[in-house]
Design a protein that fits this description.
By secondary structure, chain A is of the alpha+beta class. Chain A has helices at about 25-35, 90, 120-125, 145-150, 160-165, 180-190, 240-250, and strands spanning about 10-15, 45, 55, 60-65, 75-80, 100, 105-110, 130, 140, 170-175, 205-210. Chain B is globular and about 70 Å long. The chains are: A alpha+beta (about 250), B mainly alpha (about 300).
């Protein structure tokens, strides 16, 4: 049955640090690579050398933020399945293909049972589910369920491909149901947040907001500009310090 | 949302077909023999063409039978059950009337109730989606039920009921549009809640240069002026013209046929708008619906 479990023993998920993400898309490629070569239908591309389109379980958006004070910032924003506690994508599924695991909270699709109606993708506010156009079935982030419990892999590799590959340490994997886990402590320390809390999905994945930029901000402009400003002479005509010496030295040559 | 022809055809035709089955099941009119055959041919024709059309939007049809398994949690699964049950019950009832001149009234009532429930399940598939605020309102099931009953009254030749239900349909559709335009603001999803970033947020770069499944399926946008024109066309064909035909020309075969065709054409336009105008919150991540949220405060006075 595609009812949600009343509670899950663990809440495995990701913590994404918007302060350190540099927008390199390495996690996108690692995800596509692993999930094309391992469990389930491969993530296909259509017209890859023309009007390209394809299936991705993880996509990086980039936003420009204009804070109340200071200069604008560019924020790179990775987004994949948030493995919600109240996952609306699971309960809408008519075939029983979508389910949330009671043992660790991972939301999965049983590809053998999916009929490709796409209703779960409609139900997800985050755009975490995509129908693969070649296979005709729903694809979504599995939290690399075939890596994290895989005893054939070295222990260091038993984490999602996106987390393992991230060169800036912006992605963290762990049990968000355990308040003493590294990820839970990180969320508490940095004030991690839910995306779209008004959608009542209770996402497990957490996002760490960018830290305030305290030194590299442009000086603040205050007051009105004087109407005579265009006619004002430059404040310092003579170069100062090292440039003054250089100027003089060049003059003497 | 992408207005897929298969789903528009399905909800327009099967809605009218189940509406006719409701009236026939209630014995309005109680028909027998050849007349009954024609009525049921129309009713089953509309519902079955509609249901078959809905199967075409599945990307993996071989698993369609599994959609009967999750009726305890899924409205789509309940719809699949309700559609088959109402067609079976009404099929038995119809066989009695057509071949044996026998009207089993309680069986008809059961069939009518199941047909009504089928339309309700269809509407709940859309109503339950919080991520599509325009659909996520109580006027959605009312709209589907009244539209189906109005179509059924027209098709079954219940002129008085048709006039009343068409007038009611006009009011419900207007309400659904009025309320629908405000729902996005009421739900309160903005690019700021979507990203939880402090300050004014703008999309700087999409994840990929091309379109993807999400943008094709859920970030469908139509021009506002077109939407207004299409609303006028939908209302004219679906409600105004059939009402005028019935009130001015009276109810006979030719005028009823004109009214039915006009109603179906208007309904198809209304259903196209139902999808095309529905804004999915995921569009926010792709820089869409800024107009829906920028003036959210203006749309919803405190």
């Amino acid at each position: 049955m595609t009812a949600l479990p009343e509670r899950t023993d663990r809440k495995l998920g990701l913590v994404i640090d918007l302060d350190t993400c540099v927008g390199c898309h390495a996690c996108v490629i690692a995800c596509k690579g692993w999930n094309t070569q391992h469990y389930g239908a491969p993530l296909s591309d259509q017209d890859a050398y023309g009007d390209a389109s394809g299936t991705f379980l993880n996509r990086i958006h980039s936003y420009q933020v204009e804070p109340e004070h200071g200069a604008s910032q560019t924020i790179h924003f990775p987004k994949s399945c948030l493995h919600c506690e109240d996952a609306p994508c699971v309960t809408v599924c008519p075939t029983g293909a979508s389910y949330k695991r009671a043992e660790d909270g991972i939301v999965l699709v049983n590809e053998d049972a999916c009929m490709g109606c796409g209703l779960c993708a409609w139900a997800c506010p985050y755009g975490a589910r995509e129908v693969d156009m070649a296979a005709g079935i729903m694809k979504k982030c599995t939290l690399c369920v075939d890596r994290i419990y895989n005893e054939n892999l070295p222990e260091a590799d038993r984490q999602p491909a996106c987390v393992r590959t991230c060169p800036s340490g912006a992605r963290h994997f762990g049990d968000l149901g355990d308040p003493d886990s590294d990820v839970s402590r990180l969320v508490a320390e940095r004030g991690g947040v839910d995306l779209m809390p008004e959608q009542n999905t209770k996402p497990v994945n957490q996002y760490l907001p960018p830290r305030p930029k305290d030194r590299l901000q442009a000086p603040e402009m205050t007051g009105d500009e004087d109407i005579l400003a265009p006619w004002l002479a430059p404040v310092a005509e003579e170069p100062q310090g090292f440039l003054k010496w250089l100027d003089g030295a060049l003059e003497r040559l | 949302m992408h207005p897929a022809p298969s789903v528009i055809i399905f909800s327009t035709l099967s809605g009218a077909g189940f509406g006719l089955l409701i009236f026939l099941g209630l014995g309005l009119p109680a028909v027998e023999g050849r007349v009954a055959f024609v009525f049921y041919l129309i009713a089953f024709g509309l519902t079955v063409i509609g249901l078959l059309s809905s199967v075409f939007h599945l990307k993996n049809r071989k698993n369609a039978w599994r959609s009967y398994s999750q009726w305890r949690s899924s409205w789509l699964s309940r719809e699949a059950w309700a559609a088959v049950l109402s067609l079976v019950v009404m099929g038995l009832y119809a066989a009695g009337q057509v071949f044996f001149g026998l009207t089993l009234a309680p069986l008809g009532w059961l069939g009518a109730a199941l047909s009504l429930f089928t339309v309700y399940t269809t509407s709940m598939i859309y109503t339950q989606l919080r991520a599509v605020p325009r659909w996520n309102q109580w006027a959605t099931p009312v709209l589907f039920l009244v539209a189906s009953l109005a179509g059924g009254a027209l098709l079954s030749g219940n002129a008085t009921a048709a006039i009343l239900l068409l007038a009611l349909l006009g009011i419900v559709v207007l309400w659904h549009w009025w309320k629908g335009d405000r729902r996005f603001g009421e739900v309160g999803s903005t690019l700021e809640t979507a990203t939880r970033l402090e300050g004014r947020v703008k999309l700087w770069e999409k994840p990929h240069t091309g379109e993807n499944y999400l943008t094709r399926e859920m970030v469908y946008q139509i021009g506002r002026r077109h939407a207004v024109k299409l609303r006028v066309i939908a209302m004219g064909l679906m409600v105004v013209l059939p009402l005028l035909v019935l009130l001015v020309l009276g109810a006979h075969h030719v005028s009823a046929a004109v009214a039915v065709l006009s109603y179906l054409a208007g309904m198809a336009v209304q259903r196209w708008l139902f999808f095309a105008e529905a804004e999915h919150v995921v569009g926010l991540y792709y820089g869409a619906h800024g107009n829906m949220t920028a003036n959210a405060s203006e749309r919803t006075p405190a």
